[in-house]
Amino acid sequence: MTGSSFDLVVVGAGAGGLATANRAASLGARVLVLEKGADVGGSAALSAGILWTAPDLATLWRVQPDADPVLGPLVVEGYERAVADVRAAGAEVSEPWADHLEWGLACKIDIPALFAAWSAEVRASGSLLTQVSEVELVRERGRVAGVEYTHEGRRERASAPATVLATGGFQGDPELRQAFIGHGADDIAVRSNPCSVGDGFRLGKAAGGAASRHLSAFYGHLLPSPMAVTRERLLRLTLYFSAYGVLVNRDGRRFTDESLGDEVSNQFVVRQPGRRAVLIWDERVQRERALAVPYPSGMALDRHAEATALGARAARCADLGELVDAVAGWGVDGTALAATLDGYRRFAAGEAVALDAPASSPCRLGDGGPYYALEVQPCITIPFGGLRVDGDARVLDRDGVSVPGLYAVGADAGGAQDLRYIGGLVFGFVFGRRAAEAALCRA
Ligand SMILES: Cc1cc2nc3c(=O)[nH]c(=O)nc-3n(C[C@H](O)[C@H](O)[C@H](O)COP(=O)(O)OP(=O)(O)OC[C@H]3O[C@@H](n4cnc5c(N)ncnc54)[C@H](O)[C@@H]3O)c2cc1C
Fold this sequence. Notes:
This protein is an alpha/beta fold. The protein has helices at residues 15-26, 57-63, 71-88, 111-125, 174-180, 199-206, 233-236, 262-269, 283-290, 303-309, 320-328, 334-348, 425-439; strands at 2-5, 8-11, 31-34, 50-53, 97-100, 104-108, 127-129, 132-140, 143-151, 154-159, 163-165, 189-190, 218-219, 223-224, 246-248, 277-282, 314-317, 371-377, 379-380, 382-383, 394-396, 402-408. The protein folds into 2 domains: 2-215 and 381-439, FAD/NAD(P)-binding domain, CATH 3.50.50; 221-377, Alpha-Beta Complex (Flavocytochrome C3, Chain A, domain 1), CATH 3.90.700.10. It has 13 helices and 22 strands. α1 (15-26) packs across α4 and α1 (15-26) packs parallel to α13. The structure holds flavin-adenine dinucleotide.
């Protein structure tokens, strides 16, 4: 085994890992970045590139009342700095918009340009290796003192006073999904890079780190069903507009307040019979929401037509009776569905009707057709739970004491979000910067 030493080792070269390494390099540190995949970028490279979060603390607490009291505010307060870091790297940043998912502050950033610039900065100050395997933490005298890893068939050792875990979460591991998200979550689609299988979580736990809160919550979106989830369908077939429709399970019953957002409904579908649901909407929602761009840089396309062409269970019917018959043919209880839709429409019209689930902003399911139905499946992009960390990304043990020399960022660090989603990239960027500064004692 050969050995070398660095100021900082970063495991994972996606949003959190590259942000950490770039900030450390800019502070003059010699950094080693280890990436399992053939290329850098992780899920961030597959993403829509929307850098966004809650615009202020009042909005944060409104949408995430159970968010971590330290991490949540830090991400909101660190947002503008994160945008400035993207600009400083020479990557393009769009004009901001203030209604992302109705309430978020957002801009579109050029991820390929950003990661090219950050990778070059890291390579100039140290080393960035891809196709690395079997990463293990080295522990000496009660602290994490670096890593051992395999690269090009050789076992290597890198010593460093600080190591940052940034492997992107445990969404790719059926065992961890089942353990934390619950029964059946081992059998849901993964909408992410394929390498994030919980390595950071397992390494951090083995070194004495504790798990965060919110282990059963996760971010993902509803996708058509049945449909294989391929890389090119990740963004194209995402059903962002489900918040404006009606969702029923195979018992023909509603089970969530759809207006909380597609990311919330996605989590509840995992708990429904067969882990499937049916989304129903009317012509107005089709015209104003389904066919429209979901956000300024998003794709405008007919997702119902595309899903139909791909073989998903889909129907377009002249009236609701016909639609109920079509959906009943997919194994949904037609009698219950007819009663659900009838009660829902009367509720939306102002009648006092007891619903199976609240409807805080009901769509009216207008007076005339056509009506649309699509079977949907849940998926996971990142878990909201991970390793327990403090505001400087230090991994904490069960007593809340930091594990010396160990940090976690991005989706490897958990607890900040619960049920509703307030951003993905922003967590990597904000806490990557903070981890680098804390590890190099330059906060
Ligand atoms: C289709 C899609 C669209 C999205 N759109 C957006 C969006 O518009 N806005 C937004 O905010 N978020 C978006 N996200 C989510 C966002 O991409 C993630 O939240 C973010 O990338 C997580 O950052 P991360 O650093 O934790 O993980 P990643 O960016 O996934 O990076 C983790 C890296 O670690 C590597 N790795 C894993 N295990 C190891 C190991 N043992 N050793 C070394 N390396 C390892 C992986 O290969 C990967 O490169 C989207 C995600 C997807 C999939």
